[in-house]
Design brief:
Length: 947
């Protein structure tokens, strides 16, 4: 489930390498250091980037990051104001301002000029509104950074706030709200605020829509927006980060040149000091009837913000104990009893500003749904155990040692993610600690830990019941869910207290997978994957990193079978076996994860079981053997079968409630596979299955598998050979590597139209149109990639910004097994399917004239930016390790796809783009696809004609 974090937590997630998505998200500041240029930013010895900080004369604090290996440069500017500061009479104003700001400046008045400029030069731009911050960001080819910064910085000096776009951006905000209002994660996030202190700003609607953002008596929307901008958009409460190929002196000069002129109004940084949870909001049960098939239980303990104690990590200490999956711990015991599928926890201590909560959340089984009192009592009992016996300094020392090793081996972040994380984190952390704060465990401080534990009181808890059976009829304001709130009774507290006696838990042991030793770094002999084993039952390939020779590795093992695509039955069985396998290895996965060793399982290509291991390499052979032994010994009991079937059916039911555009993506992927079944066929097959079928399928997997092992990283050839031989000894097979099963794909033949029309349970409708070539072609794939870099912005600007046809307006090149393809997609809340398709078709036809009028220099610039992106050095080991994985799983063992793509990109000309546009997108004889999903707002309207 997507979580909405405080701005502080969000910045740390980004600095830790978590990907950034979306426009709207959720979040005190310290005085700016005056001699910033003298500060040394502490960095990992594994990080060869150079760092510096500065304070511009206007009070704007800046962090600079130089990396000559980058082909793209990135910038992020954060303003210390967000949705918490919306005026009462214009809810969503901070978000609306974020939209309006990027619609031109006095110097650069073109409304889509910046987006067009970044996309044409291999980059992108976006923004998001958090609880108490707003962030603006972009990335672009390094050679264009100077001009891009000139354009970007001008938004904070002389924005036009073009009134002609007011209604269009109101509609854009409204469409964004419409996109999310039927999503449970957004309903629950909103409800978190609506059930908080009414005086806290989180209790108000944050996204905005047409109802809240309009002229009202005594409040003119655009006047309020300008007043908000003038009141808060001041250099002294802004933070900037520049990450680029340029040297530190060059980056410093760019910061001074472009950002020193942003006005400083000496604004006091607004802080949310009103508590979110007072005594009046504690001791409550909150009942939410989900839109999707969810069965969950949350226990929230209100806590005060303690981010000033980031060096001591009391929250992380407690979290580590709470979430352990070792035998006898809370999560392991509840899973063993069949009450929960998983149990997790997280702190969001700034959820409301000066306070927040610790949440312990359970994904319930059907049995757990009937025994929620027992689960609540178990949580309380385990918290009591931590209070009594958990303050063991050895736990802290172990965390300290693990994170010290992690910092020594910390990867470099993606430039854009790093820029955003640094901009946000500057509000809360000293500059010198921006890069190491999450790894610092200064000292064991029992007092700090006890201070947090003392707040975990049962009588203060807020219990969330999330399941279809709850009694709830109050609409979540501005959203589609329903809820109810009531006081927790004395009888309930007494019942939980009585049930606590039934639980006897253990605290976790120290981690036997952790080692502070590094494995020797091997010679990087194979810069492209090399086959090192090929025999009956197993094949293995090894690749070494060119750039990041570290003690890190990635193993992927596929138990390849040749019968899993026979029918929908096998598709269901493959998912169920994986579900049972994942749950029965959760303790091992959790133990490994705490030692920075990743273990995962999944259903891979051709519905074959996959096992993945990553991180420090010395334990990989041991872990691979353990995982294979666990798979062979899988216990498929009645309980395991019921839980796996419940999870499968729940996931299938929820697919129809995903965002409409995501459902379209899923249909497009399904329909271009040679073997394809509808959801209805798959569900019908699931209904007929029993435990015996799963057991038989698990046995069939072991009867004659072909193991496919792909190893990238710090392994010798001998080690990979040994791992392969040990694996095949455990799971022997007779099949030769040449008989490997791989996915096969189909695309519509010339003149053929592939169509799908279906209804969905959400309000919006969406159309996806696709065009495909009639043969494999590297050149045409490259041409469509360059074409889209020009087409996509024009398409977005016209249909989304100018016409407000929908919030999701996108296009992309879509090759299928090297057959070139191109997709246009629109999701709309205000136009029926025939209208959406007609407008897409008109734009497609009109764009030919725009393409023909495009300057060849613009096309060449876009092409060169794309080439630079392909050639850019990977930012870390893991991005480098993925370079050839797609080709491996498709058995394309020449591993030349990147080289072929680069060669084809080099050849692209304007003439090529015009020709392929006419031949593919304007040719009735192209192979085409038309996929339509009709939302509930349009149930009485027709589908677009299929022709």
């Amino acid at each position: 489930m997507l979580k909405r974090y405080s701005a502080y937590a969000f910045s740390l997630l980004l600095l830790g390498g978590i990907s950034l998505v979306g426009c709207e998200s959720t979040s005190s500041s310290k005085p700016a250091v005056q001699n910033l240029e003298q500060v040394t930013i502490t960095t990992s010895p594994n990080d060869d980037r150079q760092y510096a900080a500065m304070l511009l004369p206007n009070g704007l604090q800046v962090v600079l990051v130089s990396d000559p290996s980058l082909e793209n440069s990135a910038a992020s500017l954060a303003v210390g104001v967000g949705s918490a500061h919306n005026p009462e009479d214009q809810l969503g104003l901070a978000h609306y301002l974020e939209h309006m700001l990027f619609l031109g400046t006095e110097k650069y008045p073109e409304p889509d000029g910046f987006m067009k400029y970044t996309q044409a030069n291999g980059g992108m731009t976006n923004a998001f509104t958090a609880y108490d911050k707003t962030n603006y960001l972009f990335q672009i080819n390094a050679g264009k950074f100077d001009e891009a910064l000139d354009r970007f910085s001008d938004y904070f000096k002389k924005p036009t706030f073009d009134p002609d776009f007011s209604d269009k951006e109101r509609n854009a905000v409204n469409n964004e709200w419409s996109l999310q209002k039927a999503q449970d994660n957004w309903n629950l996030y909103a409800l978190q605020g609506y059930t908080a202190n009414p005086a806290n700003p989180s209790s108000k609607f944050t996204i905005g829509n047409l109802e809240t953002l309009q002229d009202k008596p005594g409040s003119v929307l655009n006047d309020e927006m300008k007043k908000f901008y003038d009141a808060y958009y001041s250099a002294n409460i802004m933070k900037l980060a520049l990450v680029g190929k340029q040297s530190l002196p060059e980056l410093k000069a760019l910061a001074e040149k472009h950002f020193a002129a942003i006005p400083n109004n000496n604004v006091v940084l607004p802080e949310v000091t009103v508590p979110g949870l007072t005594k009046a909001e504690m001791g409550k049960s909150i009942h939410y009837k989900p839109i999707k098939e969810l069965k969950a239980l949350y226990v929230d303990f209100p806590v005060k913000s303690n981010k000033a104690e980031w060096r001591l990590k009391p929250n992380e200490f407690i979290h580590s104990l709470l979430t352990s999956e070792e035998p006898g711990t809370l999560g392991e015991q509840l899973r063993a009893q069949g009450l929960v599928k998983s149990l997790t926890a997280y702190f969001d201590t700034e959820a409301f500003g000066s306070d927040g909560f610790l949440r312990i959340q359970s994904d319930l089984t059907d049995a757990g749904l009937q025994k929620q009192d027992e689960i609540i009592a178990a949580i309380f009992a385990y918290v009591d155990l931590i209070k009594r016996k958990g303050l063991d300094q050895n736990y802290y020392r172990e965390l300290q040692a693990m994170r010290t090793k992690d910092f020594a081996n910390a990867p470099k972040a993606d430039p854009l993610q790093q820029a955003v994380g640094l901009a946000m984190a500057q509000f809360d952390l000293p500059v010198e600690s921006l890069m190491n704060s999450q790894y610092v465990y200064d000292r064991y401080d029992a007092k700090a830990i006890k201070s947090v534990l003392a707040q975990l009181e049962e009588k203060r808890a807020r219990i969330w019941y999330v399941n279809p059976d709850v009694q709830a009829d109050t609409p979540v304001p501005f959203f589609d869910g329903t809820y109810a709130v009531r006081d927790i009774t004395h009888a309930e507290f007494n019942r939980w207290s009585s049930l606590k006696a039934n639980y006897k838990f253990n605290l976790p042991p120290l981690n036997d997978l952790f080692s502070d030793q590094q494995a020797p770094i091997v010679e990087n002999l194979y810069l492209k994957p090399q086959q090192v084993v090929s025999q009956a039952g197993v094949e293995a390939f090894l690749a070494h990193p060119e750039f990041y020779r570290e003690d890190k590795g990635k193993l992927a093992l596929q138990i390849n079978i040749d019968f899993a695509l026979k029918s929908p039955k096998e598709a269901v069985l493959a998912q169920m076996v994986n579900d049972i396998f994942a749950k029965q290895t959760m303790t091992l996965m959790d133990r490994a994860g705490r030692a920075s060793l990743g273990i995962n399982t999944s259903v891979m290509d051709v519905n074959s079981q996959g096992i993945y291991i990553s991180g420090y390499t010395s334990k990989h052979p041991q872990l691979l053997q353990q995982m294979l032994k666990e798979f062979i010994a899988l216990d498929i009991s009645d309980k395991h079968f019921r839980e796996a079937m419940d999870s499968f059916q729940q996931n299938m039911a929820n697919k129809k409630k995903n965002h409409v555009f995501r459902q379209l993506f899923g249909h497009a992927q399904r329909l271009t596979h040679k073997t394809q079944w509808s959801d209805e066929e798959v569900l019908a097959a699931a209904e007929k299955l029993g435990k015996a079928d799963v057991i038989a399928y698990h046995q069939a997997i072991q009867a004659d598998p072909l193991l496919r092992l792909y190893a990238v990283g710090n392994y010798t050839e001998a080690q990979v050979r040994t791992m392969a031989q040990e694996a095949v000894a455990l799971l022997p097979g007779k099949r030769l590597p040449e008989t490997r099963a791989i996915n096969h794909y189909v695309t519509p033949a010339a003149g053929q139209l592939l169509s799908l029309s279906d209804d969905v349970e959400l309000a919006d409708s969406a159309v996806l149109q696709a065009w495909f070539g009639n043969k494999k072609s590297d050149d045409e794939q490259a041409q469509l990639a360059v074409l889209n870099s020009l087409f996509s912005n024009a398409f977005f600007m016209q249909l989304r910004t100018n016409e407000q046809l929908g919030y999701v307006v996108t296009s992309f090149n879509y090759p299928v097994d090297d057959v070139p393809g191109f997709v246009m997609l629109v999701q709309s809340s205000n136009t029926d399917l025939p209208g959406v398709k007609a407008r897409m078709d008109k734009f497609r036809k009109d764009y030919l004239a725009i393409l023909k009028a495009t300057d060849e220099k613009e096309i060449e610039s876009a092409k060169q930016a794309m080439i630079a992106n392909v050639l850019e050095k990977p930012t870390d080991f893991y991005s480098e390790a993925d370079r050839y994985s797609g080709e491996f799983w498709h058995a394309k063992y020449k591993f030349d796809g990147r080289d072929r793509y680069l060669a084809s990109l080099q050849k692209v000309t304007k003439v090529d783009l015009v020709k392929i546009y006419e031949r593919l997108l304007l040719n009735d004889k192209s192979g085409k696809a038309l996929l339509q999903l009709r939302g509930t707002n349009f149930k009485d309207k027709p589908f677009a004609p299929v022709k």
